């Protein structure tokens, strides 16, 4: 665009115009399962940051949207991806074209499920790919072919789950908001991007605890790699407890469902089931094992909210 002889790009996007609630609220809740071990439970309500860019989606996506500088944004996800929905909503709010590459070409001919229907209603162009292509999507040749097939070669690409160096640096603010208020900060992990940034933002003497919701034991290496990409090396004191994935992503048990419903009842918190329920369940079990010294201020990050179609 030429303006008074100067070459200018698209108007810069101002995240403050979306009026996020930042820092997100920190709420202490009274819960006997923690209190009897002398542990104070605090809920870090990242689910209240923004009604459409919920929780870690705000922290990871907004810096990427700034980096996209007005280019169409293309990203990847499964048929029920929170990340695809958030990207589509961001596109609607900011007037940015978005493309969602969806795992499973068998879905192409069928009516959209409520999650993908929401993406489409928000203006996201959906491009379905077969599972083997989807698995190879980070390979440069496959990625180039997918972008070509989706007619999006000029797009700014955000990886599946939204975790890249820009996103990880965006999540540092979560740690900075908590460093004066909590001794241990716990959160559920998928790719490890939020944990990688959070740990970097917490101060000395503070500890981050990740509860992976996927099975496989790959997350420590993935989190280290993300910290190296974002900061040049390891940052902060963090660890994982791999015991609370309940069989893997989106897997659940009657006991977990009952736990989540009971937590909602006790505390009036809508409990997102894929990540947040597993985190809270894990924390109750850990408190019972005596994992937190008496007097610990334990913050649980509410990284999402249930999807209501
Ligand atoms: C609600 C919720 N919590 C936690 C996570 C995990 O975040 P990360 O992939 O950064 O580990 C996700 C996925 O992005 C999520 O949707």
Automatic annotation (TrEMBL):
Q: Name one GO molecular function term.
A: D-cysteine desulfhydrase activity
**N6-(pyridoxal phosphate)lysine, modified sites:** 57
BP term (GO), one: alpha-amino acid metabolic process
Q: Which cofactor does it need?
A: pyridoxal 5'-phosphate
Q: Which UniProt keywords apply?
A: Pyridoxal phosphate
Where on the tree of life does the source sit, at the highest rank? Bacteria
Q: Where is the Tryptophan synthase beta chain-like PALP domain?
A: 33-304
Residues of the active site are: 81
Kindly give the InterPro entries that the UniProt entry links to this protein: ACCD_DCysDesulf (IPR027278), TrpB-like_PALP (IPR001926), TrpB-like_PALP_sf (IPR036052)
Family per similarity comment: Belongs to the ACC deaminase/D-cysteine desulfhydrase family.
Please state what the protein is called: 1-aminocyclopropane-1-carboxylate deaminase
Q: Which organism does this sequence originate in?
A: Streptomyces aurantiogriseus
């Amino acid at each position: 665009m030429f303006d008074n002889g100067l070459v200018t790009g698209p108007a810069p996007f101002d995240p403050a115009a979306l009026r996020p609630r930042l820092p997100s609220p920190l709420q202490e809740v009274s819960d006997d399962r923690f209190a009897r071990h002398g542990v104070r439970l605090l809920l870090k309500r990242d689910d209240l940051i923004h009604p459409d860019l919920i929780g870690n989606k705000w922290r990871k996506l907004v810096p990427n949207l700034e980096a996209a500088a007005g280019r169409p944004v293309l990203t990847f996800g499964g048929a029920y991806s929170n990340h695809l929905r958030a990207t589509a909503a961001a596109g609607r709010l900011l007037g940015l074209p978005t493309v969602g590459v969806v795992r499973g070409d068998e879905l192409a001919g069928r009516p959209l499920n409520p999650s993908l229907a929401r993406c489409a209603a928000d203006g996201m162009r959906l491009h379905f790919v077969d599972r083997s292509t989807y698995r190879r999507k980070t390979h440069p040749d496959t990625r180039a072919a997918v972008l070509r097939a989706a007619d999006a070669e000029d797009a700014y690409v955000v990886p599946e789950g939204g975790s890249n160096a820009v996103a990880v640096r965006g999540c540092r603010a979560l740690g900075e908001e908590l460093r004066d208020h909590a001794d241990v900060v716990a959160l559920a992990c998928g790719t490890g991007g939020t944990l990688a940034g959070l740990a970097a933002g917490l101060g000395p003497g503070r500890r981050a605890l990740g509860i992976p919701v996927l099975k496989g034991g790959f997350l420590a290496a993935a989190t280290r790699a993300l910290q190296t990409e974002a900061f040049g090396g390891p940052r902060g004191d963090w660890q994982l407890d791999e015991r609370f994935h309940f069989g893997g992503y989106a897997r659940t048990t009657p006991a977990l469902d009952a736990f989540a419903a009971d937590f909602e009842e006790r505390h009036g918190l809508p409990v997102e089931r894929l990540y947040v329920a597993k985190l809270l369940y894990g924390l109750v079990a850990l408190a019972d094992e005596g994992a937190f010294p008496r007097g610990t201020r334990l913050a649980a990050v509410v990284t999402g909210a249930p999807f209501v179609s």
